[in-house]
């Protein structure tokens, strides 16, 4: 009752800080829309009640209309959602269903950035005298409406009202409120707000952002002593090495401003040592190298310049470092000086420098590295055959040194450069046999066998791969066994080849080699599970029984996800369309359960029940990795469904059908791209479920005639899936129907895909995949094909 009074009181008090145009000022008494005055789906006002369009929603009940609207809302199809909510609201006025539809209709205006309509609808909504979760969220959207209009004071008041209800996402609202206070010049209030959030229990990354904002505010207020205290707290929080390094470099002026030059220097040196390649590191060195108070070590200055390719500056710094170096430091400084000379193109001086480093270092680690660097310089100077022999001699002289395998790998590359492919293949096979436990050597060993296979030496290739399979385990051995089977088939040993393929399917049924083995054996396995089948209580019970076989009985103190504050925040943030922040909170919950099988199971199940497919997938994946053997293929059905979910089913089926893409393939693509997180953003800037790059999205929008496209639209599932389906279908056509070729184009670019195929139709998908020289793209192609196979075998697709 108290909160309801506060709600109505604030509605009156906001008159004093009425929002700017286009949002109208609040009246002292906010009228609830009558049946004769309702918001239409596009945000206009209707003078009389409108009945739902029977042609759009034939004989649909209010509950069905609401469900339809929520499904379209989840898909990001806000126009269709608004139509359904409008129909549900008119079909059930004065009922809980009608009220919920009214809320979501108002929200649809906000999600379509029709902020004036959103403000009007939500303002009316909170004035109806009802207090519930929807009312609380309505205040958040009112605040957002003010924020978007630039009405900072009104936004501050509305965010404060939202927080007064003590919702789980209150700290995030306080962050937004602080930003509005800052815009008003109320920096003390803003700083205090940021500090409250920074010291709260929300996700670590969000706290760090609050700390940085608080430090900026305190600096603007001239309160460097308070900023320094906050900086110390932030550094204690920061864990990622590169992030911590950036903070140390950028915040070092704070202790210096308080007269603590020693701490400033300590921070700078640590930051530069941790991440010399940061732009902030280069800027700091350029700014401070002549500062007598800081006096950065010249060796460290050289390291920064080396990381940024400033070789002349690095050379000068190394000379300065050498002037004061002792005997233990001198050899490596000489080696680095020679490297700088090499980068400047002075090979003669570089070779002399390496000789000096070797003479100073002897058989020490620096001396061995200098020898290897010298051989590389010989090769770069054009003496390729001398370099090849040098690498071989190096590996013979120091066979147990960890750099010896790399030396042999470089020898093989130089043989390739000379056009001697047979000798390069033998060099790689020799490398593999010498160091069978090293991934670098295993890859070289396999590549040597592939050369033999391609050149028609299939018997020898089979022998090489069988030897590799016997010497290794896991995915390396599986790959070698698959290719040994291919070689057996190529030599006419059909029975042995087919038997080997059958064994691969048994050993690793969800792997890429198993998917390809089924294709070679013409085994078209299809699933029987309907896409919309719920996970039954018996299915969940089977997971619990499986857990008991290896994790023991469930402990009595397994945390309930429903009571976890991080989970509560995640659900509330998702409801407010703050999906990045929501995923950060889900990540907190996952990390807290990282090594607890039963806690992971409960969290995955809870996330599934609440529509968080990406979180359920992550929890299930971690759970399977904890299980003996880590084999997802033998996991219970419910767990496999969490690992290979089918969220956004209507969207994926419709868009796959629109562009003639197999929906099972489309689900595999989306799983690989985003793990079904609609808010996913890659390091390169790809966005949404299908991870479409903004520039690519612009081109697709033009091709499809999508008007008003904005980059943020890529986070809308329906649009993202549509664009992804369009693009992959285009690549399938361009690559003459090859799924492997299309996937290579999707991930690595169409030009590269054509290069890997030689500009010809792909006849052998296995050879094509192995010839992809981008490690990420090669693994991507294989991973999607493997997942496609799992989806086909798990679900029933006929008739879709």
From TrEMBL:
InterPro entries recorded: Lysozyme-like_dom_sf, TPR-like_helical_dom_sf, TPR_rpt, Transglycosylase_SLT_dom_1
Signal peptide as annotated in the record: 1-18
Location of region: Disordered: 34-54
The protein's name in its UniProt record: Lytic transglycosylase catalytic
Ranges for domain Transglycosylase SLT: 654-758
Annotated source species: Roseiflexus castenholzii (strain DSM 13941 / HLO8)
SUPFAM superfamilies recorded: Lysozyme-like, TPR-like
Phylogenetic classification of the source organism: Bacteria, Bacillati, Chloroflexota, Chloroflexia, Chloroflexales
Source domain of life: Bacteria
PROSITE patterns: PROKAR_LIPOPROTEIN
Keywords annotated in UniProt: Signal
Bias type Polar residues, positions: 43-52
């Amino acid at each position: 009752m108290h909160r309801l009074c506060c709600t109505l009181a604030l509605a009156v008090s906001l008159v004093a800080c009425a929002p700017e145009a286009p949002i109208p000022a609040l009246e002292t008494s906010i009228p609830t829309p009558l049946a004769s005055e309702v918001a239409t789906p596009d945000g206009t006002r209707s003078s009389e009640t409108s009945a739902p369009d029977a042609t759009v929603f034939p004989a649909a009940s209010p509950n069905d209309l609401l469900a339809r609207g929520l499904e379209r809302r989840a898909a990001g199809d806000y126009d269709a959602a608004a139509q359904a909510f409008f129909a549900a609201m008119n079909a059930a006025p004065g009922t809980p269903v009608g009220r919920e539809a009214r809320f979501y209709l108002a929200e649809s205006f906000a999600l379509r950035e029709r902020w004036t309509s959103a403000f009007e609808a939500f303002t009316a909504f909170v004035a109806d005298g009802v207090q519930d979760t929807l009312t609380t969220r309505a205040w958040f959207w009112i605040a957002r409406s003010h924020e978007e209009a630039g009405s900072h004071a009104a936004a501050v008041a509305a965010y404060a009202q939202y927080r007064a209800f003590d919702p789980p996402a209150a700290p995030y609202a306080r962050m937004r409120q602080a930003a509005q206070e800052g815009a008003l010049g109320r920096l003390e209030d803003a700083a205090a707000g940021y500090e409250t959030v920074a010291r709260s229990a929300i996700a670590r990354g969000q706290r760090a952002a609050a700390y940085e904002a608080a430090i900026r505010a305190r600096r603007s207020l001239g309160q460097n002593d308070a900023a320094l205290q906050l900086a110390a707290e932030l550094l204690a929080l920061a864990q990622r090495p590169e992030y911590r390094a950036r903070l140390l470099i950028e915040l070092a002026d704070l202790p210096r401003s308080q007269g603590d030059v020693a701490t400033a220097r300590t921070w700078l040196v640590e930051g530069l040592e941790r991440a010399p390649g940061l732009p902030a590191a280069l800027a700091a060195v350029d700014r401070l190298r002549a500062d007598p108070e800081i006096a950065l070590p010249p060796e460290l200055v050289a390291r920064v310049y080396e990381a940024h390719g400033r070789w002349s500056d690095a050379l000068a710094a190394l000379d300065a470092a050498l002037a004061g170096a002792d005997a233990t430091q001198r050899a490596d400084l000489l080696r680095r000086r020679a490297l700088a000379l090499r980068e400047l193109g002075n090979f003669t001086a570089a070779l002399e420098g390496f000789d000096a480093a070797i003479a100073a270092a002897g058989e020490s680690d620096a001396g061995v590295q200098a020898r290897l660097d010298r051989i590389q310089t010989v090769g770069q100077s054009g003496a390729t055959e001398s370099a090849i022999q040098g690498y071989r001699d190096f590996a013979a002289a120091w066979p147990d040194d960890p750099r010896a395998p790399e030396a042999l790998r470089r020898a093989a590359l130089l043989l390739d450069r000379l056009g001697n492919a047979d000798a390069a293949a033998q060099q790689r096979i020799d490398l593999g046999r010498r160091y069978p436990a090293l991934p670098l050597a295993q890859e070289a060993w396999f590549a040597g066998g592939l050369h033999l296979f391609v050149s028609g030496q299939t018997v020898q290739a089979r022998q090489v791969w069988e030897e590799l399979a016997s010497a290794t385990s896991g995915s390396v051995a599986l790959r070698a066994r698959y290719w040994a089977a291919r070689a057996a088939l190529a030599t006419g040993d059909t029975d042995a080849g087919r038997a080997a393929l059958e064994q691969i399917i048994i050993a690793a049924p969800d792997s890429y080699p198993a998917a390809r083995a089924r294709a070679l054996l013409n085994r078209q396995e299809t699933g029987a599970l309907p896409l919309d089948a719920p996970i039954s209580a018996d299915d969940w019970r089977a997971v619990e029984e499986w857990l008991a076989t290896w994790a023991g009985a469930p402990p009595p103190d397994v945390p309930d996800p429903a009571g976890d504050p991080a989970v509560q925040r995640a659900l509330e943030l998702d409801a407010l369309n703050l999906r990045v922040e929501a995923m950060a909170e889900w990540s907190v919950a996952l990390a807290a359960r990282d090594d607890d099988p039963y806690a992971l199971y409960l969290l995955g199940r809870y996330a599934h029940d609440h529509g968080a497919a990406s979180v359920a997938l992550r929890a299930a994946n971690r759970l399977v990795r904890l299980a003996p053997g880590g084999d997802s293929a033998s996991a219970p059905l419910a767990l496999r469904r969490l690992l290979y979910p089918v969220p956004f089913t209507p969207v994926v089926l419709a868009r796959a059908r629109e562009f003639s893409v197999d929906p099972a393939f489309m689900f595999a693509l989306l799983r690989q791209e985003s793990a079904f997180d609609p808010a996913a953003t890659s390091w390169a800037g790809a966005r949404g479920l299908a991870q479409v790059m903004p520039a690519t999205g612009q081109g697709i929008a033009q091709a499809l005639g999508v008007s008003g496209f904005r980059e943020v639209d890529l986070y809308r599932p329906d649009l993202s899936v549509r664009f992804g389906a369009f693009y992959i279908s285009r690549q399938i056509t361009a690559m003459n129907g090859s799924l492997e070729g299309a996937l290579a184009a999707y991930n690595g670019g169409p030009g590269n895909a054509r290069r890997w195929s030689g500009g010809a139709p792909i006849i052998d998908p296995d050879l094509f995949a192995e010839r992809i020289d981008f490690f990420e793209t090669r693994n991507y192609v294989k991973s999607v094909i493997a997942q496609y196979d799992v989806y086909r075998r798990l679900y029933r697709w006929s008739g879709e």
